[in-house]
Amino acid sequence: MLTAPTARALRLTDADNIVVAIEPFSAGDTFAGVTASQRVPRGHKMAVEAIACDAAVVKYGQVIGFAREDIAPGSWVHEHNVYLHSFDRDYAFGTETKPTAFVTPERRRTFQGFRRANGKYGTRNYVAVLTSVNCSASAARFIADHVTRSGILADYPNVDGVISLVHGTGCGLDTHGEAYELLKRTQWGFATNPNVGGVLMVGLGCEAFQIPRWMRSYGISEDATFRTLTIQEVGGTRKTVEAGVRAVEEMLPIVNQATRGEAPASELMLALQCGGSDGYSGITANPALGVAVDLLVAEGGTAILSETPEIYGAEHLLMHRAGSTQVGEKLAERIRWWEDYTARHNMEMNNNPSPGNKAGGLTTILEKSLGAAAKGGSTNLNGVFDYADPVTAKGLVFMDTPGYDPVSATGQVAGGANVLCFTTGRGSAFGCKPTPSLKLASNSYIYEQMNEDMDINCGDVLDGVSLAQKGEEILQRVLAVASGERTKSEQLGYGDSEFVPWSVGATM
């Protein structure tokens, strides 16, 4: 007598009424006594219990949506038979906080970093050409490209490069509004990021975002490693490029004086990102990164969780870990802001997941968020920061950003992040100068398919590698990259075009 083939799947908690297919199910395949009634793609969900119409669909032990119709055991569970409606979540602050078990001094890890005058440590040493406005973007690129092509950087081995960080705004905005303040904070954050050793700021001259006003707001004055130029004052593009190249060439010997030295892992500020997520992301890459975060926090370091629309539906779990009532209230306030913001623009919070996320097995924003929040590990939430604000707390913190990866990462780097980990299931192409970005693949298929872009394969968690082992591997790679090892995105040259400050409000 023939028996039905047994499929590979995961039931993540006893409370779940679905399982996740590790490999595709065919009709007739069985798992835990349940026979698939139809094909279930890899990374997607199959019901293992009867789910009545309007009853909760449960994954990770949490509600990820509601049945649109009666769902029989063995059915493929996805957007065709799952919908989402609002429901109350427990916003009890601090109910699951716990003391942090710090590593003893003799066991603390180190990396080789660049110590700055303010005591912070960089993992890279760049000269950055920033712009006040889109109108000076080309001139800034010309300056950086000219210096790079000239070959002069070979004489300065401690300088990682000259990068142009340009953007599409700086004018057509309210000079006393939120958009101006966001750009002001972002530019200052990049200018002072510990991975930047010298800055040239290039403007047009007549823009809304005036360089002198920006400098006054932070008490900045020009010096040997901070210079400014405006195209209108210098006399046009060619003269600006020539003056900019000279300014950078004068900085290089000074910036090159910085050398790597031993630094405690507590000086790392790790930005956490996910993009192109799939049904495995919340099972492999994200929780493995969460283990690495816990290890880093135990070293006294900092990790920045972000992408507010992509923790929507999991925010209550973070609030339970809030280190204070103020932290919990600040996160709740940001969630309410996003609900209002999306409503004002005739959008909804569940416009996420993207088509690619859904093809990878994610059905609702709740499911995506529960997996995304796993990047934050299990330690207390010690702070909630506005976009591009300097991150001043240690441990796990949250920064309010959009879910769009370049905008979100830009805010984190402006906040001080000196290294970044980016998980992906569908395969994301991303870099983030001046901060090195490691790519973590959630499944072995995409790791092999995009091997030139991926730094770490987390798909082997599905084959028996423990999350503890993978988290340790991730932290070791973070320390190696912080010490100068090049990531795949750095080898490919990514990072100049991914500087995307958050632009809110009207463009006038």
Question: What labels would you give this structure?
Answer:
508 residues, alpha/beta, 14 helices
Could you explain the architecture of this structure?
By secondary structure, the protein is of the alpha/beta class. The chain is built from 14 helices and 23 strands. It has helices at residues 137-150, 178-191, 211-218, 231-234, 237-255, 285-298, 315-320, 325-344, 355-359, 365-372, 405-414, 444-449, 467-482, 488-492, and strands at 9-10, 18-21, 30-31, 34-35, 45-47, 56-59, 62-67, 76-77, 82-83, 110-115, 121-122, 126-131, 161-165, 196-203, 226-230, 260-264, 269-274, 302-305, 381-385, 395-399, 419-424, 437-441, 456-457. Strands 19-20-18-17-21-22-23 form a seven-stranded parallel β-sheet, with helices on both faces. Strands 1-2-5-8 form a four-stranded antiparallel β-sheet, with no helix packed on it. Strand 22, helix 12 (444-449) and strand 23 form a beta-alpha-beta unit. Helix 2 (178-191) packs across helix 11 (405-414). The longest helix has 20 residues, at 325-344. It is globular and about 75 Å long. The chain starts with 8 loop residues before the first strand and ends in a 16-residue tail after the last helix.
